Amino acid sequence: MDVAITKLEISFSVHATEDKEKNLQAVSNLIPSSIIEQAQVMEEKLEGGYKNPIKYMRLVITKANSIDKILRSLSSKLSQEDKKTLNLEFESRIDMKNKSFFLRLDKEALANDRINIASSKNIVKISLKIRAFTKDVNLKEFLENKGIL
Q1: Could you tell me the pTM of the whole model?
Q2: Which sequence spans correspond to the domains of the chain?
Q3: What architecture is the 3-145 domain classified under in CATH?
């Protein structure tokens, strides 16, 4: 294969009024707990407005079979309308220099086991790092074949 996703990163903020475990539970509606347990989990402590504490969580998955499971889950839960939106917004969601594709999912919907593309502040960000082994690869077509677009 000429193209592969070599890293999938999921990141989200946990505000002082939110429960970290509930946020991780919401993410587990997309990613099986067994994969979360294998993921590299990083937590950064930040300070928000009015000096409120914020935890910035990052989960990094690099195992190919785990990434494939997540993509299959994501593809099966994305609505056709959201896939159409991602397809139309492809150019603004891809970083061609770093070969990364970005999605933002509504965190509240995810907590209710739904996947909705969102642009609000309360989101779960997914970054797909794509590696192309040949020069002239159609990344849009690759993501369409994976069921993301």
Answers
A1: 0.89
A2: 3-145
A3: 2-Layer Sandwich (3.30)
- Token pair for residue 28? 């587990």
Strands in the chain per DSSP E: 3-15, 40-47, 53-61, 94-95, 100-106, 123-132
pLDDT in tens, 66-112: 999 999 989 999 999 999 999 999 999 999 888 999 999 999 999 99
Give the whole-angstrom CA distance, residue 78 versus residue 117. 8
Cα 118 from Cα 102, distance rounded (Å): 12
- Express each pLDDT in 46-73 by its tens digit: 988 888 999 999 999 999 999 999 999 8
CB-count burial class (<10 Å; 0-12, 13-18, 19+) for 15: middle
